[in-house]
Amino acid sequence: MQGFVLAGGDGVRFGADKRLAPLGPGTMLGVALDHLRRAVGDDGPVWLVGPPERRTVAAAPWLDDEPAGAGRGPLAGVLAAVRRGGGLILGAYMPLVPSSTLQVLPHLGRSRPAAPRLGGRPLALCAYWPAQALDALEGVSAGWDEARVRDAFVRSGGLAMPLDALGLAEEDAWMFSTVHTPYDLEVLRGELERRKGMWEWAGR
Q1: 122 belongs to a structural domain
Q2: What average pLDDT does the structure give for the chain?
Q3: What value, to the nearest 5°, has the Cα angle with vertex 132 and ends 106 and 160?
Q4: What does residue 202 show for φ and ψ, rounded to 5 degrees?
Q5: Three-state secondary structure readout of 85-144
């Protein structure tokens, strides 16, 4: 099993490189990498994925988007990962997804993508993407938003799992919070502060 952290966002809304924003014991990127590494275990490598110009961190091996510079946004990162053989994919802007949640997705999906479902939608950038999904990904039109990735998820028969099927309760939804702006990060830090003592940084 391989892991891929999508780390190519340009941070325009954040106003800085949000991958390096402090969170918990390290940075947003560091926490996301730690959780994904624990989910993958010793079975395979964990990659950072993004456009070549964003290759400014050396926390893990880098994999360029495919096709690079073609305006495909996160779709290019997922496509690069699946062309590499597929595996667990996690957006760096979702750093607190528990490793235990990520671990079960490949067993549920097998030859199909599998992701948590929140707000009626699959979290397609926090998902298991097998090699069998390549045709669906290549058939999706270019675009910057996550909707294109969700389209490929549906086309490939992806499984969108409710939180309770993943051993989580509705009040655990905060763990899937996304960070796009400084305000988002402050809200996430506030959630962590409120739950001090309930979260283990080693992942759940």
Answers
A1: yes
A2: 88
A3: 45
A4: -75, -5
A5: CEEEEEECCCCCCCHHHHHHHHHHHCCCCEEEEECCEECCCEEEEEHHHHHHHHCCCCCC
Identify the CATH number of the domain in which residue 175 sits: 3.90.550.10
The rounded distance, in Å, linking the Cα atoms of 190 and 188 is 5
Look at residue 200 in the predicted model and tell me its pLDDT. 52
User: What percent of the chain lies above the pLDDT cut of 90?
Assistant: 62
Measure Cα distances from 3 to 35, 38, 170, 182, 187 in Å: 10, 10, 26, 27, 27
pLDDT for 12: 76
Q: Which domain holds residue 128?
A: 3-194
Long-range contacts of 182-187 (CB under 8 A, 24+ apart): 182/14, 182/15, 185/14, 185/18, 185/21, 185/23, 185/28
At residue 202's C-alpha, the angle toward residues 84 and 171, to 5°, is: 95
Q: Give per-residue pLDDT as tens, 120-156.
A: 999 999 999 999 999 999 888 666 578 889 999 999 9
Coil, helix or strand for 167?
A: coil
Total of domains in the chain: 1
Distance CA 8, CA 53 (A): 9
**Position 191, amino acid:** E
| 190 in any annotated domain | yes
Which has the higher per-residue pLDDT, 83 or 202? Answer: 83
